[in-house]
């Protein structure tokens, strides 16, 4: 049984690490702010879920697992919310800049 838990946790570590690496490449390579944010938010959420689940499998049913679960739930709630707030602020700032450019042209 321990072999299966170790194997499962290492598979989750690998998947999570790969997703986080792909997200980092996306942030570096994608052209616009919104595509970069999309790549970062999706892969960060999925990669974090995989890595923390792998750690939970390694820890077993202990207090540490409950703390990791609380951290995971907190990240699942705050990551999409912060991505949305950042995208909304960028969209509003861009619209404000375009309005200023149009006023300057007149």
Structure in a nutshell:
The protein contains 3 helices and no strands. By secondary structure, the protein is mainly α. The radius of gyration is 19 Å and the shape is elongated.
Explain what this protein looks like in three dimensions.
- It is a single chain.
- With 106 residues, the protein is mostly helical.
- It is built from 3 helices and no strands.
- The protein is elongated and about 75 Å long.
- The model has no long low-confidence stretch (mean pLDDT 86).
Provide key terms for this protein:
106 residues, mainly alpha, 3 helices, elongated
| Spans where pLDDT lies below 50 across 5 or more residues | none
How many domains in all?
Answer: 1
Total beta strands:
0
- Shape verdict: elongated
| Separation, N- and C-terminal Cα atoms | 73 Å
Written as H for each helix and E for each strand, in order along the chain, the element string is HHH
Largest sheet composition = none
The radius of gyration is 19 Å
Structural class: mainly alpha
Kindly state the percentage of residues in helix: over 70%
Quickly count the helices.
3
Mean pLDDT: 86
Strand content: under 5%
